[in-house]
């Protein structure tokens, strides 16, 4: 009987390590975002500070482990074998669910996952026991710790509203006090802000945070009943040190707050979230120890008879396990490629400047923005104009002179907002940790960042609907996580109950295969991104530089459009739906990149020297025609995919042959064009390439004429006719846009040659 459970313990330990790696890779952004977004300190310093915070937080997380043992279900109502099924179902589900959401690119929370997995598996096992005993549904409450579970779930949901509201309020008053010109304020203003921020961080981290650990009893007599005195003395001390830091050491107090805040948030993250990764395996290991211990299992009861009431008692987590978990988290933080990612959803949604919006607006986001505008107008009508003017002055953003070609190095937001993000998030998470509530660090850090963004007026009229839509999408993903975790864990628990150790082996094999597939896919995707011909934003401030940079983009775009067109035509003729689907998604990515180039046009024009303003028209025309080509390729892929997806008649042989011939000529022409652009031999454009493109255009016109004749005589399929004409007409537009680009480049090349001849 022991061997199967030993195998389960080993499997849970391996799953815990995998969960630590995957979880930290996904959640590291929670405590790195503010420091990275503000660019206040170097990335290396951020990582060192965060690593120290994670290491300390892991050691202080022992008290949180009780959530896995007794926070969701009543352990005394389950036997050892049932508890092991619950724990095994939870860990397998956690790996599979995280893999699933990562594959979809959906946001997820490890805290919500583990809570609802425990709830789902425990409910499933309780229902199995109730069915066997013939109990009614009302007895479910005897198995589930409904009060604590409700408290945890409500705490997680409430954290969304509380984090957003508090973040917005604190940021608003911080900006009123400091304005955007905070570095020019009097030294005492920064010292007071530093005193408040550092007092809040240190009090909740080092005092309230310690309350949930085994070490608190040793210092309890120094803290209990002295809250006001401790806070007051801390404020005086930190304010004085902040003033010395600013006045005499001539250092930036906001950088110090960001460093301390990053450490604090990393500590809070590890202290609160470590239970998500190793809480269940540790509880399973302690359950096994209790079952095999003759001093506890005095009568030598079988696994199906041994009640797990011992999990309801306070059991200390071995320090070596916490240290080991902390070490894995720190190593993951440094070496995981996912953890090193800088461009994250919350940075995009909270950026002070204009960014390429990642989400499409919807009717809810539009409605919320309109309602906010109406409320703002009503509020302004009540507040006196003089007060409004003073408030507006504090929110005036300083004009930042763009350094030539360096606009992408601007921070997403300033150090005041970064400091508030860290201060508010770390306080909220630490407060929840002291109350032994597994608050979602993802929810708190994200919603605090969104609240401070709103208060800081980062969501302007040009971005509000997109960013509100993004927030709604993320929140929707959270609810999806909860529902999926509950159902999946319950289902897996039931399957393990039916299949026993064989089913566990099958499920573990599936988990390993999925994780391996995900890893290979991630590596492959990374290689594809490196090898991919991505389009580059123009940073030159001269017409010659723009020609050089955009020539590379034209060559890359032609290569990708050529591949997309070939995949589309081949997929259409062979009725290969997967090939058509891939072509459709690939062309969407190309369109998004071209849209990114258009969004960068504002900064490009700002960056131009006065003597080279003609480069702007050239660049605008090139990007416009490039977009026309991508749109034509997109339309062809969409109509082809729709035709095959709806199971319409395949193309006639004559139509297929004509399309293959046209596409082969198009690919050949694109290859020649790319050679010209790669070698910058623009003199070859006229007459060679222009004539070749015109010949291809005539060929397409001839194909259209032949299809008209077939339609009048032998064609019997309206759908086929519509599709064929659509492809030919869009191919014409694609070729015409290509001709226009060639003429633009040749014209500019010819002008430069004439200028050089005139100068010589």
UniProtKB/TrEMBL annotation:
It is found in: Membrane. It holds the Pfam family PHO4. It comes from the Bacteria. One of its GO terms (cellular component) is membrane. One of its GO terms (biological process) is phosphate ion transmembrane transport. The keyword Metal-binding does not apply. Signal peptide: none annotated. The keyword Chloroplast does not apply. The chain crosses the membrane at residues 6-29, 41-63, 83-102, 114-132, 152-174, 186-207, 227-246, 253-271, 315-335, 471-495, 501-520. One of its GO terms (molecular function) is phosphate transmembrane transporter activity. It is a multi-pass membrane protein. Belongs to the inorganic phosphate transporter (PiT) (TC 2.A.20) family. This is Phosphate transporter. The lineage of its organism: Bacteria, Pseudomonadati, Bacteroidota, Flavobacteriia, Flavobacteriales.
